[in-house]
Specification:
By secondary structure, this protein is mainly α. 71% of the residues lie in helices and 2% in strands. The chain has one domain (6-366). The chain has helices spanning 28-53, 59-71, 74-86, 95-123, 131-140, 146-164, 168-188, 194-205, 214-224, 230-258, 271-290, 295-324, 334-357, 363-366, and strands at residues 6-7, 13-14, 21-22, 26-27. The chain has a two-stranded antiparallel sheet. A two-stranded antiparallel sheet has the order 3-4.
Amino acid sequence: MPGSIRWANGGTVTEAPEQQRTRAGRVEYFDVLRAVAIVAVVGIHAAITEWHQAPVTAQRWEELTWINAALRFCVPVFFMISGALFLSPHRAVTVRELFRKRIPRILVAFAVWSLVYGLIEVYGPGGSGSFGELVTRFFQGHFHLWFLLALTGLYLATPILRLVVRERRVAWYFVWLALPFASVLPLLTRVPVAGEVLARMLDDMRFDLVLGYSAYFLLGYLLSGAVLGRGALIALAVAGVAGVVGTVLGTVLVSRAGGEWDELFFGFLTPGVAAPAIAVFCLAQAWGERHSLSGGRGRAVVFLAGASFGIYLVHPLFQWVYRQFGFTTEFAPPFLSVPLLVIAIMVPSALAAVAIQRIPGAGKYLS
């Protein structure tokens, strides 16, 4: 990629190669990341229900915490893939395209699926049957549809962020500025006494420029043009594992101290989630430079990657159906039940996503 930087062993700096593209111009390691990330998303949602219900002192709850912590890289990775694509100078992204194609697709998907899930929750088993509640749920969206609104915000900011990444030093400055203000300082606001003072200072400062997920958007672009040496990759992998461990320890400590579950360290902007996400992205990119998928594995990855948006939208529906029949993670130890439930959700979700994609005219908006 012209203008990008290559970090090799010994700290030398050379030009990075063009992203490896296969299968009709697709970046293969992006497909790998999409496939892995969508499985991780389903894994989080499969495990989180019991995690919210089990006593925080129970061994099962702690095991579910490990599963959740290990899989939370998925959402940042999706943002990073989008950033690598939409901020690339090799891709023409215009305001016209964003408002006529990208943003309408996201908003239509949000509206339709928000209505579908609202109808199920309000008029389905145990629902209130209240039209007022349906209206409220429609505008609030189902719990997983927040991602669409966050992505809409990033699309709106894309023309500005494309100007930022023209100068890589400025882009990296943006990312490093986000580290304390979006990732670290919010955690410190929970510290007794000093945290309250810090929270008031941050509230008065209103430094919202680097908050949210824009840093992941920029990181995706910056890291997609960097080839890291073996030492750097090992360091990132170690940092990723440390991030998962830190997320688990922090979650267990704050939850048990408060007597109930606490998702403070589960936030997608926390250091313990950012480190694994960056590690997964960079390791996949390094793999993509040396390897290529072929045969059945390649077709499976491309299939999952292509259906990932639809799977994301539809999978809670199948999880809800299973729950009506008592099929949850409680039937076996979590390290067995969660993977089995993920498979049971993924298979019909992928088939449904592909079927919806084939609906003439509307399919591309709904899956």
